[in-house]
Structures are given as structure tokens and as C-alpha cells.
Write a structure and sequence with these properties.
9 strands
Amino acid sequence: MTNRIATFLLVASLCSLGVAQGKKAGRLSPHDKTSVTLGGKEITIEYGRPYLKGRSVGKEVAPFGQVWRTGADEATKLTTPVNLKIGTLAVPAGSYSLYTLPSAKGWKLIVNKTAEQWGTEYAQSTDFGRVNMKVAKAAASVEQLTLSFDKASEKKATLKIAWGNTVASVAVVVQ
């Protein structure tokens, strides 16, 4: 009887460990990290990089009018050791998740206070703030979601989100 209980507890423990790690193990998109050094400090974004696979931005992926996780799998994570101004939003040093609200008229970048979460677990109640992004047509279609920084000076860069025929961007400045 004791062996049965021990076996049951071992199997239950292994199953719960598998469920906890299952979200990471079930990734379908490759993951990447982009960074920029501003004010002598490295600012990083970690994100999943889904492919379009024949789908359209604004329709089947990153649907217009709906908050989107801005990547795949875990929420896209911004880590900054310095205070930033992202567009018009003052963001203190720390880690945050990034979401977007795409629309046909423009995109908004959402900075969320919960850095470690699965991408679909978004709660507006934990938003730090939202900021408008500039939207432009990409020179060529971008098959795989790409986040990047274009450094303009020692204290300023532009965060770009490129996918499909869309490039959304916002200024990032060290405070």
C-alpha cells in the first residue's frame, strides 16, 4: 500500500512539473532578443517570432481592434535598468510586458506591469500605460515578426515592430 501511495505521489509530481513546463515546451515559434545600449545601459526585449504563413496582419494575426501579445508564447518582455520615455510615456527602470493594439488607423504600444506571464494572460488592469506608435508601410513584406532598435544617439533610439507590410515605431529615450 505504501508503494502505491509513493508511486502515485511521484507520478502526480512529474505530471504537474510537465504541465508547468508545457507552455515553454510547446513553443511553435523561435525566440529572440533585441537590445540597444542607451546612456551606457543595455535595454533588452525578449520575444517569440511567429511567421505569417500566408496570414494577414490585421486579420488572422495581430487583429485590428484587439490587444495582441506582440509575439508568440510568453508575453514580450522589456527589461530596462534605466528610466525611459517611450513616446510620451515615462517608464521607470524595471521589467514589463509589451502588448500592442493594432488598428487600421494606427497602433498603440501597451506597457504592462506584469513582466512574467503567458502572452494570452493579458489584463488591462495591470497596464502601466499606452502610447501611440507611428505606422508605415514596409519596403518589402516581413515574413517573420521582427522587433528592433534603431539607435539615433547615445540616449535615443526608435523601437520598431515589423511584420507583413507594417512597421510600427516609437521613440525610446533615456531619462
